[in-house]
Each structure stands twice: as structure tokens, then as C-alpha cells.
Amino acid sequence: LARGIEVSLIETDVEMIRAAANFGFKVYYGDGTRLDVLRASGAETAEAILVCVEKAEVADRVVQLAQAEFPHAKLFVRAFDRGHVLRLISAGVDFQVRETFESAMRFGDQLLRALGFPDSVVAETMEDVRQRDAERLEMQVVGGLTAGRALMRGNMATPVPAPLR
Prior knowledge:
Blueprint: E1 8-11, H1 14-22, E2 26-29, H2 35-40, E3 48-51, H3 56-69, E4 74-79, H4 82-91, E5 95-98, H5 101-114, H6 119-143
Parallel strand pairs: 1-2, 3-4, 4-5
């Protein structure tokens, strides 16, 4: 909106529709997994379709429908979790972001600052976490969800199953 881009929303929650309308959004009432609703909202001429829904399976359905019917539009999708990210990458979306990752990064950044760590250490830590996360994601794209576990940091030793005696 700040750059004059026209934005249309599809929503079923009446309160959210009212709130969005107060901010100047063009809002369509309906289910974004329905082709007629997507067309009514302007998806046929949209340069990008943003999918920001609560349920991963709903997002996946919108992605499938948009790719089939509006292949010209870029797809930006908010992912539910890491497994959903992997499905979205496999589906070929243009951009995906895990729902809580960026807020967790910001939260961690502010926590380290509040605990007195120097700016340089905070920046280095955040870069390390992002780098490890990106490397792990690359491994998971090839090897599945459990790939790259060694790149995770935790504060507990990972239990190793032992045979019963």
C-alpha cells in the first residue's frame, strides 16, 4: 500500500473484514480455496498471490489452485512449520517463510541485548542461527525432515536409544 500496490484480501471472519476495511483494503468475503472467489478477487490479473492462512492444508490447496489457474502470479506463502516449508519448496512457490521463525529471531536478538551482550556478539549469533537454519533446510530439501539435525543447537543432550537388557 505504501508503494501504491493494489491489495485485495479474501476473508471469512466478519471482524477481520471490518478491521481490514478500516485500513483501506479491498476485502472479498469467501473461501480462498474456491476458484470463483479467487477470480472475483482479481487473481487472474494479480502479479502476486499471498497465502497467509491458519492451516497448512488450506495453504497447500490455494497454492495448487493458483499454480494451475494463475501460473503467471508469483506465490508468497506463510508456512506453518518446517515440514510445511519443505512441501512449499517442493511445490515451487516463489517465497515462503515459517510463521514463527522471524519473530523468534527478533525475540532472541532482543533477549541477548537485554542480557548485556554487545551488538557485535548479537549480530554474530543471529547470523550463525540463520546460516545453520539455511544449511539445515538445504539438507532437508534433499534428505527429508530429519536431515541436518547436527546443525541444531539445544541445551540438552540428544537421547540415544539403547537396547533393553
